[in-house]
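Appendix B. One record, verbatim.
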Amino acid sequence: MGSVDVALRVATQADAPALLESTRAAFAARRPLDPPAEALSDDLSAVRAALAPPDFGVIAEVGGAIAGSLLVRRAGEPPAQATLRRVNVASGFRGSGIASLMVRQTLLRLADAGVRRVCVTAREELPELVAWWRSRGFAASATTREGVILCLDTPRPIQVPTADDMRALGAVLATRLRPGDLLVADGELGAGKTTLAQGLAAGLGVERPILSPTFVLARVHPSRGAGPALVHVDAYRLGSAAELDDMDLDATAEDAVTFVEWGAGFVEQLSPERLDVIITRSPDPDESTRTVYLLGVGPRWAQTGLDRLADEVAHRDDDEEHAS
Protein backbone atom coordinates (compact mmCIF):
# COMPACT_ATOMS: atom_id res chain seq x y z
CA MET A 1 0.00 0.00 0.00
CA GLY A 2 3.00 2.27 0.14
CA SER A 3 2.26 5.49 2.02
CA VAL A 4 -1.50 5.35 1.39
CA ASP A 5 -3.38 5.00 4.67
CA VAL A 6 -6.68 3.30 3.83
CA ALA A 7 -9.66 2.86 6.14
CA LEU A 8 -12.39 0.37 5.21
CA ARG A 9 -15.93 0.52 6.52
CA VAL A 10 -19.43 -0.70 5.70
CA ALA A 11 -21.51 1.89 3.88
CA THR A 12 -24.65 3.32 5.48
CA GLN A 13 -27.76 4.78 3.88
CA ALA A 14 -26.34 8.23 4.63
CA ASP A 15 -23.43 7.41 2.30
CA ALA A 16 -25.71 6.78 -0.70
CA PRO A 17 -25.36 10.22 -2.39
CA ALA A 18 -21.56 10.32 -2.06
CA LEU A 19 -21.32 6.67 -3.09
CA LEU A 20 -23.39 7.32 -6.21
CA GLU A 21 -21.24 10.30 -7.17
CA SER A 22 -17.90 8.57 -6.61
CA THR A 23 -18.96 5.39 -8.44
CA ARG A 24 -20.20 7.33 -11.47
CA ALA A 25 -16.95 9.29 -11.61
CA ALA A 26 -14.82 6.15 -11.39
CA PHE A 27 -16.73 4.31 -14.14
CA ALA A 28 -16.87 7.41 -16.35
CA ALA A 29 -13.06 7.59 -16.20
CA ARG A 30 -12.77 4.14 -17.81
CA ARG A 31 -12.57 3.77 -21.57
CA PRO A 32 -16.01 3.91 -23.27
CA LEU A 33 -17.94 0.66 -23.72
CA ASP A 34 -20.90 -0.26 -25.91
CA PRO A 35 -23.31 -0.61 -24.21
CA PRO A 36 -22.12 1.69 -21.43
CA ALA A 37 -21.44 0.31 -17.96
CA GLU A 38 -24.64 -0.19 -15.95
CA ALA A 39 -23.13 1.80 -13.08
CA LEU A 40 -23.47 4.98 -15.17
CA SER A 41 -27.27 4.64 -15.18
CA ASP A 42 -27.67 4.06 -11.43
CA ASP A 43 -29.72 6.59 -9.50
CA LEU A 44 -29.98 7.36 -5.80
CA SER A 45 -32.86 4.95 -5.22
CA ALA A 46 -30.85 2.09 -6.78
CA VAL A 47 -27.89 2.78 -4.49
CA ARG A 48 -30.09 2.97 -1.41
CA ALA A 49 -31.74 -0.33 -2.35
CA ALA A 50 -28.28 -1.89 -2.81
CA LEU A 51 -27.41 -0.95 0.78
CA ALA A 52 -30.49 -2.56 2.32
CA PRO A 53 -29.72 -5.78 4.31
CA PRO A 54 -28.78 -8.49 3.57
CA ASP A 55 -27.02 -6.54 0.80
CA PHE A 56 -24.34 -4.04 1.75
CA GLY A 57 -21.57 -1.81 0.48
CA VAL A 58 -17.91 -1.36 1.39
CA ILE A 59 -16.14 2.00 1.24
CA ALA A 60 -12.40 2.62 1.22
CA GLU A 61 -11.45 6.06 2.51
CA VAL A 62 -8.19 7.97 2.33
CA GLY A 63 -8.08 11.14 4.39
CA GLY A 64 -11.83 10.95 4.89
CA ALA A 65 -12.57 10.92 1.13
CA ILE A 66 -13.97 7.95 -0.79
CA ALA A 67 -11.09 6.33 -2.70
CA GLY A 68 -12.97 3.19 -3.76
CA SER A 69 -16.08 1.16 -3.12
CA LEU A 70 -18.02 -1.95 -4.00
CA LEU A 71 -21.50 -3.37 -3.51
CA VAL A 72 -22.42 -6.88 -2.37
CA ARG A 73 -25.64 -8.62 -3.33
CA ARG A 74 -26.47 -11.73 -1.32
CA ALA A 75 -28.80 -14.52 -2.45
CA GLY A 76 -30.39 -17.66 -1.04
CA GLU A 77 -31.84 -18.63 2.32
CA PRO A 78 -29.61 -18.38 4.23
CA PRO A 79 -27.58 -16.27 1.74
CA ALA A 80 -24.95 -18.82 0.68
CA GLN A 81 -23.79 -16.94 -2.42
CA ALA A 82 -22.87 -13.34 -3.04
CA THR A 83 -22.17 -11.16 -6.06
CA LEU A 84 -19.69 -8.29 -6.09
CA ARG A 85 -20.91 -5.25 -8.02
CA ARG A 86 -19.74 -1.75 -8.90
CA VAL A 87 -16.17 -2.47 -7.81
CA ASN A 88 -14.24 0.74 -8.43
CA VAL A 89 -11.28 2.85 -7.37
CA ALA A 90 -11.06 6.61 -7.86
CA SER A 91 -8.71 7.60 -10.67
CA GLY A 92 -6.20 9.21 -8.32
CA PHE A 93 -5.76 5.99 -6.34
CA ARG A 94 -5.52 3.34 -9.02
CA GLY A 95 -2.52 1.07 -8.68
CA SER A 96 -2.28 1.63 -4.92
CA GLY A 97 -3.74 -1.75 -3.94
CA ILE A 98 -7.08 -0.40 -2.73
CA ALA A 99 -9.14 -2.72 -4.95
CA SER A 100 -7.27 -5.78 -3.70
CA LEU A 101 -7.72 -4.68 -0.09
CA MET A 102 -11.46 -4.07 -0.50
CA VAL A 103 -12.08 -7.37 -2.25
CA ARG A 104 -9.99 -9.41 0.18
CA GLN A 105 -11.60 -7.96 3.29
CA THR A 106 -15.05 -8.38 1.77
CA LEU A 107 -14.30 -12.05 1.05
CA LEU A 108 -13.25 -12.58 4.67
CA ARG A 109 -16.41 -10.86 5.94
CA LEU A 110 -18.56 -13.05 3.71
CA ALA A 111 -16.67 -16.19 4.74
CA ASP A 112 -17.29 -15.34 8.41
CA ALA A 113 -21.00 -14.95 7.59
CA GLY A 114 -21.16 -18.43 6.07
CA VAL A 115 -21.24 -17.37 2.41
CA ARG A 116 -19.53 -20.12 0.47
CA ARG A 117 -19.30 -18.70 -3.05
CA VAL A 118 -18.70 -15.23 -4.45
CA CYS A 119 -19.05 -14.19 -8.11
CA VAL A 120 -18.42 -11.10 -10.20
CA THR A 121 -19.11 -10.17 -13.83
CA ALA A 122 -16.34 -8.58 -15.92
CA ARG A 123 -16.78 -7.20 -19.42
CA GLU A 124 -15.00 -9.19 -22.13
CA GLU A 125 -13.95 -5.90 -23.73
CA LEU A 126 -11.76 -5.33 -20.67
CA PRO A 127 -9.40 -8.33 -20.74
CA GLU A 128 -7.10 -6.69 -18.23
CA LEU A 129 -10.00 -6.61 -15.77
CA VAL A 130 -10.76 -10.30 -16.34
CA ALA A 131 -7.07 -11.06 -15.77
CA TRP A 132 -7.10 -9.03 -12.55
CA TRP A 133 -9.95 -11.10 -11.11
CA ARG A 134 -8.22 -14.31 -12.17
CA SER A 135 -5.08 -13.22 -10.33
CA ARG A 136 -7.20 -12.94 -7.16
CA GLY A 137 -8.36 -16.56 -7.43
CA PHE A 138 -11.59 -16.09 -9.37
CA ALA A 139 -12.21 -18.55 -12.21
CA ALA A 140 -14.52 -18.15 -15.21
CA SER A 141 -17.71 -20.16 -14.81
CA ALA A 142 -19.88 -18.80 -17.63
CA THR A 143 -20.13 -16.15 -20.32
CA THR A 144 -23.29 -14.09 -20.78
CA ARG A 145 -24.29 -11.00 -22.74
CA GLU A 146 -23.19 -8.96 -19.71
CA GLY A 147 -19.68 -10.44 -19.70
CA VAL A 148 -17.60 -13.18 -18.09
CA ILE A 149 -18.90 -14.49 -14.79
CA LEU A 150 -15.98 -15.35 -12.49
CA CYS A 151 -16.47 -17.13 -9.18
CA LEU A 152 -14.50 -18.07 -6.12
CA ASP A 153 -15.20 -20.38 -3.19
CA THR A 154 -14.60 -18.45 0.00
CA PRO A 155 -12.02 -19.74 2.48
CA ARG A 156 -13.28 -21.53 5.57
CA PRO A 157 -12.24 -19.61 8.70
CA ILE A 158 -9.93 -21.71 10.89
CA GLN A 159 -9.87 -20.78 14.57
CA VAL A 160 -6.39 -21.10 16.10
CA PRO A 161 -6.44 -20.55 19.90
CA THR A 162 -2.71 -20.90 20.73
CA ALA A 163 0.76 -20.75 19.22
CA ASP A 164 0.98 -24.55 19.48
CA ASP A 165 -2.25 -24.80 17.51
CA MET A 166 -0.76 -22.51 14.85
CA ARG A 167 2.26 -24.83 14.57
CA ALA A 168 -0.09 -27.82 14.36
CA LEU A 169 -1.97 -26.13 11.52
CA GLY A 170 1.33 -25.54 9.72
CA ALA A 171 2.32 -29.20 10.14
CA VAL A 172 -0.99 -30.41 8.71
CA LEU A 173 -0.82 -27.88 5.86
CA ALA A 174 2.66 -29.22 5.04
CA THR A 175 1.12 -32.56 4.10
CA ARG A 176 -0.59 -30.78 1.17
CA LEU A 177 2.58 -29.15 -0.15
CA ARG A 178 4.95 -30.11 -2.94
CA PRO A 179 8.01 -28.59 -4.67
CA GLY A 180 7.19 -25.36 -6.47
CA ASP A 181 4.41 -24.27 -4.13
CA LEU A 182 4.24 -20.58 -3.22
CA LEU A 183 2.57 -19.46 0.02
CA VAL A 184 2.00 -15.76 0.66
CA ALA A 185 1.27 -14.93 4.31
CA ASP A 186 -0.31 -11.69 5.42
CA GLY A 187 -1.35 -10.37 8.82
CA GLU A 188 -0.34 -7.65 11.23
CA LEU A 189 2.82 -7.81 13.33
CA GLY A 190 2.61 -10.63 15.85
CA ALA A 191 -0.28 -12.34 14.08
CA GLY A 192 1.56 -15.66 13.90
CA LYS A 193 3.09 -15.85 10.41
CA THR A 194 6.49 -17.07 11.62
CA THR A 195 4.83 -19.47 14.07
CA LEU A 196 2.93 -20.99 11.15
CA ALA A 197 6.23 -21.29 9.26
CA GLN A 198 7.65 -23.24 12.19
CA GLY A 199 4.81 -25.73 11.82
CA LEU A 200 5.42 -25.98 8.08
CA ALA A 201 9.09 -26.69 8.75
CA ALA A 202 8.22 -29.47 11.19
CA GLY A 203 5.78 -31.02 8.73
CA LEU A 204 8.22 -30.77 5.81
CA GLY A 205 11.12 -32.15 7.86
CA VAL A 206 13.58 -29.36 7.08
CA GLU A 207 16.57 -28.05 9.01
CA ARG A 208 15.64 -25.66 11.81
CA PRO A 209 15.34 -23.37 13.79
CA ILE A 210 12.80 -21.23 11.97
CA LEU A 211 13.21 -17.60 13.00
CA SER A 212 11.78 -14.41 11.62
CA PRO A 213 13.90 -13.56 8.56
CA THR A 214 13.32 -9.82 9.01
CA PHE A 215 16.96 -8.82 8.97
CA VAL A 216 18.13 -11.56 6.60
CA LEU A 217 15.18 -11.23 4.16
CA ALA A 218 15.41 -14.89 3.11
CA ARG A 219 16.59 -18.16 4.60
CA VAL A 220 16.80 -21.54 2.87
CA HIS A 221 16.11 -24.54 5.11
CA PRO A 222 17.27 -27.75 3.39
CA SER A 223 15.29 -30.94 3.82
CA ARG A 224 16.62 -33.57 6.20
CA GLY A 225 15.19 -36.22 3.89
CA ALA A 226 13.95 -36.43 0.33
CA GLY A 227 11.35 -33.67 0.56
CA PRO A 228 11.53 -30.07 -0.68
CA ALA A 229 13.49 -27.33 1.06
CA LEU A 230 11.64 -24.45 2.70
CA VAL A 231 12.54 -20.95 1.55
CA HIS A 232 11.38 -18.48 4.22
CA VAL A 233 11.17 -14.88 3.01
CA ASP A 234 10.24 -11.60 4.70
CA ALA A 235 9.13 -8.90 2.25
CA TYR A 236 8.27 -6.33 4.93
CA ARG A 237 11.12 -3.98 4.04
CA LEU A 238 10.89 -4.38 0.29
CA GLY A 239 9.83 -1.25 -1.54
CA SER A 240 8.93 -2.86 -4.87
CA ALA A 241 8.70 -6.11 -6.80
CA ALA A 242 11.99 -5.15 -8.48
CA GLU A 243 13.80 -5.52 -5.14
CA LEU A 244 12.34 -9.00 -4.87
CA ASP A 245 13.85 -9.86 -8.26
CA ASP A 246 17.28 -9.07 -6.83
CA MET A 247 16.81 -11.89 -4.30
CA ASP A 248 16.78 -14.43 -7.18
CA LEU A 249 13.99 -16.54 -5.72
CA ASP A 250 13.36 -18.00 -9.16
CA ALA A 251 16.49 -20.11 -8.68
CA THR A 252 14.83 -22.14 -5.91
CA ALA A 253 11.12 -21.73 -6.73
CA GLU A 254 10.70 -24.96 -8.70
CA ASP A 255 12.40 -27.26 -6.19
CA ALA A 256 11.34 -25.75 -2.86
CA VAL A 257 8.28 -24.60 -0.95
CA THR A 258 8.48 -20.81 -0.75
CA PHE A 259 6.78 -19.10 2.19
CA VAL A 260 6.73 -15.29 1.98
CA GLU A 261 5.65 -13.07 4.85
CA TRP A 262 4.25 -9.65 3.88
CA GLY A 263 4.38 -10.73 0.23
CA ALA A 264 0.99 -9.53 -1.07
CA GLY A 265 1.53 -7.28 -4.07
CA PHE A 266 5.17 -8.32 -4.46
CA VAL A 267 5.52 -12.04 -5.16
CA GLU A 268 2.58 -12.86 -7.42
CA GLN A 269 4.90 -12.84 -10.43
CA LEU A 270 6.83 -15.82 -9.02
CA SER A 271 4.02 -18.21 -9.91
CA PRO A 272 0.57 -18.05 -11.57
CA GLU A 273 -0.63 -20.26 -8.70
CA ARG A 274 -0.26 -19.60 -5.01
CA LEU A 275 -1.83 -20.08 -1.61
CA ASP A 276 -2.73 -16.86 0.20
CA VAL A 277 -2.57 -17.28 3.98
CA ILE A 278 -4.38 -14.47 5.81
CA ILE A 279 -4.13 -14.32 9.60
CA THR A 280 -6.31 -11.99 11.65
CA ARG A 281 -6.30 -11.22 15.36
CA SER A 282 -9.24 -10.72 17.66
CA PRO A 283 -10.08 -7.05 18.38
CA ASP A 284 -9.94 -8.02 22.07
CA PRO A 285 -6.29 -7.52 23.18
CA ASP A 286 -6.74 -10.18 25.87
CA GLU A 287 -7.89 -12.80 23.34
CA SER A 288 -5.08 -14.89 21.83
CA THR A 289 -7.16 -16.74 19.23
CA ARG A 290 -6.23 -16.09 15.61
CA THR A 291 -8.39 -16.73 12.56
CA VAL A 292 -6.61 -18.17 9.52
CA TYR A 293 -8.01 -18.06 6.00
CA LEU A 294 -6.47 -20.15 3.21
CA LEU A 295 -7.28 -18.90 -0.28
CA GLY A 296 -5.92 -20.90 -3.20
CA VAL A 297 -5.24 -19.19 -6.53
CA GLY A 298 -5.11 -21.40 -9.62
CA PRO A 299 -6.01 -25.03 -10.43
CA ARG A 300 -3.20 -26.37 -8.23
CA TRP A 301 -5.26 -25.75 -5.10
CA ALA A 302 -8.68 -26.77 -6.37
CA GLN A 303 -8.55 -30.37 -5.11
CA THR A 304 -6.30 -30.05 -2.05
CA GLY A 305 -9.10 -30.14 0.52
CA LEU A 306 -8.10 -26.93 2.27
CA ASP A 307 -11.55 -26.69 3.83
CA ARG A 308 -10.85 -29.89 5.77
CA LEU A 309 -7.68 -28.66 7.45
CA ALA A 310 -9.47 -27.43 10.57
CA ASP A 311 -10.98 -30.88 11.13
CA GLU A 312 -7.60 -32.55 10.64
CA VAL A 313 -5.95 -30.24 13.16
CA ALA A 314 -8.70 -31.02 15.68
CA HIS A 315 -8.27 -34.77 15.13
CA ARG A 316 -4.51 -34.40 15.48
CA ASP A 317 -4.99 -32.69 18.85
CA ASP A 318 -7.38 -35.43 19.99
CA ASP A 319 -4.90 -38.14 18.99
CA GLU A 320 -2.06 -36.44 20.86
CA GLU A 321 -4.25 -36.00 23.96
CA HIS A 322 -5.20 -39.69 23.95
CA ALA A 323 -1.56 -40.71 23.39
CA SER A 324 -0.48 -38.73 26.46
